[in-house]
Amino acid sequence: MSIENARHAIEAAIHSGDFKGMGVAVFKAINALEERIKHLEEEVERLKRSSK
Fold it and tell me: What is the tens place of the pLDDT at every residue in 19-37?
């Protein structure tokens, strides 16, 4: 799930009062953010290696 999709899922759960759905959406958002951080860290390492 993309970060943007997770954000929309959280907003939808909040508006509908679906607390279980909100928890699932927050969990998916955290996973999406962790994945994005991992990719950014890999990109930083790749750029460091290529600049040497």
Answer: 888 888 889 889 999 999 9
Question: Would you list the domain boundaries of the chain?
Answer: 1-49
How far is Cα 3 from Cα 46, in angstroms, rounded to an integer?
23
Side chain identity at residue 43, one-letter code: E
Amino acid at 24: V
Name the DSSP letter for residue 18.
-
pTM (2 decimals)? 0.76
CB under 8 Å to 25, separation ≥6 — which residues?
6, 9, 10, 12, 13
